[in-house]
Amino acid sequence: MTGKRKIFKIKLYTMLLPILMVILVCAPMLTSPFEGKYHEREYGEKDVSKNSEDDSSETVSFAETSVGEYGEESKTDFLNPNSDKESKDFSDSFLSKDSFPSEDPAPSVDPTPSVDPTPSVDPTPSVDPAPSVDPTPSVNPSPSVDPVPSVEPIPSADPSPSEEPEDEVLNVTMYDIHSGKIVRFALEDYVLYALAAEMSTEGEKIEALKAQAVAIRSFIVSKSFVDYPQHHGAIACNSYAHCMACKSVDEYFKLSEKSRRLYERAVKETEGQVLTYNGKVATTYFHWCSYGYTESAKDVFGNYVPYLVPVLCSADSEMISKKSYTCRELLIELLGKKEGGALYASLSYDQKGFADVAQTDGGRVKSVIICGKKFEGLQIREILNLASTDFKLSYNRNTETFTFAVYGSGHGVGMSQSGAKVMAADGKTYGQILTHFYKGTVLSLITDKMYPDV
Fold this sequence. Notes:
With 454 residues, the protein is α+β, with helices and mostly antiparallel strands. It folds into 3 domains: 30-154, no CATH class; 171-315 and 412-450, no CATH class; 320-407, no CATH class. It is 27% helix and 18% strand. It contains 11 helices and 20 strands. Strand 17 and strand 18 (401-407) form a beta hairpin. Helix 2 packs across helix 3 (206-222) and helix 3 (206-222) packs antiparallel against helix 10. The chain is rod-shaped. The N and C termini lie far apart (120 Å). The relative contact order is 0.10.
């Protein structure tokens, strides 16, 4: 019996030995992912670090690790939808083991209750997150966790639509020659009030009003960087002699509703539009009536401007005014009482009269000799308050009377307002009207570079 028992024990050990070896080999595979020294994930990153002070507690990192496009490792937090949304970088998230979406958990092994997260352990600093790496789609979060798209960060460099800057309002400062005060307008409001002062709505020629609105806007913008002493620090003034007329707010609202509606339509339909020449805002002078031809800026202002040259305007041929002076009266008006009276007393019969009338390219009077003394056409117009320098001078020796027959109205440079109305009645658009009077210019939208801050 004893020999048989020994033989049985040897056979039993021989049978158990392979089983023990299998158990020893398979034991690590049956160990819970939370109880080993570390659990090596699909991508080969160690997600669990042992607490050196307490072997029974361990810290679990639930940030998925993936390899970026350029070979860098990056972490994307699948479980915390609120983690650093306004930063370009993700941070590692430390949660309890129960919320970790284990890929293939062993159902027969329960996690050790004593394993608690250690919140004091910081994420491994050696791993730099890359926001450009998308989360691995094969890992599905638990139902209690928000979807992955909500975790994607919002780059701080891209502003939301509500953060876009608002359009700035351009302003005009105007010196009021009547009150001596500086008045401030929004640019489009100034164009509206100046339009109401410069052109009537008679005939309801909307295209002419629109052309005038663009001319006003272009003129004031082109002059906005020039400091005129007459403006007392403002951009413009409301003097006919220097800038242009401009109604006050009270004066504007005294106009009929029909007229206001036309003015407002003209300004609205051309809002922000200016004429430019070679990329710069054109100085768009205008006048009431040119009587046949407009005038050159060189002959009126002394400077050649390529888009302010004489152009045909036959529609203005009906406006004529006349003024008469005796020889003595005219000399006193032109030279003053003392000098003019003395000159008249020294003149012989034959010396009285005029001679040598010089004309500009536009056919206006450039200069003339009166009673032996030379006068500029602009000087005569200003002193005698003539409507324009386009005048014909005659002299009656019997009555010693000078007569000025004046054609048109205004300095004659740029757009003729009455001519614009006739062109509008003929079906021309405001763009065609403007390019006729301002040669080589184009319609453009105003930018902040064209205008100063006021």
